[in-house]
Hints:
The protein has about 230 residues and is α/β, with parallel strands linked by helices. The protein is built from 5 helices and 12 strands.
Amino acid sequence: MIFEKKLNFIDLSLQITSGMQKYHANYHPVTKIVKTANHKNDKREVRKIITGTHSGTHIDAPVHFINYGKSIDKYKLNHFLGPARLLDFSRVKNRTEISLESVKKITKNKLSEKIIIFRFDWTDKFYGKKNFYIDHPFLSPELCRWLVKQKVKLIGLDIPQPDNPFNSRNSINDGINHKILLSNDVLILEYMTNLKRIKKNYFFFVGAPLNIKESDGSPCRALAIY
């Protein structure tokens, strides 16, 4: 295919490396990349990769939080690509709740795109640091319900999750935003990076997960194209 103009391709994904930062719960495995064949002994290179379905840049499927919810392989490929809208909240302070009113102010009370990307520059600044999981901004439940009403199909964020970091599994509000979104087929792409490199508010987004049978999520290579 010959394009009439040069397109910009921006990688929005973290590189997968051994020992990369993960959520501190024991059920999230440590990422390990081990060479199992080499040119000296085997005349080729092969590696074994051990990682989690929620390590690095990844997409959450409903079954991650919803009992008997859909797994990642139940979604058609077009759920993970299409016209996207970038919402810039990179100047907010730590632990800021992003309200519905603040989003309506930017969007003029309407969203036509079905993929919404929230920019905080959080992963760029704090991934690998101690405060990555405890000081990040987050979305309000009211905003998440509105995104459902707007028929959004996927949201992307360069923070570890859309929830208040204190709404953990020991909280009465454990994963409330995850549950609002995922129970309505709004999938969640977390740990994005490089959003500051996107110079337009509207672009074409591609973020396909691996086709893992019955999986609660998957690593993802996310791209902005414009």
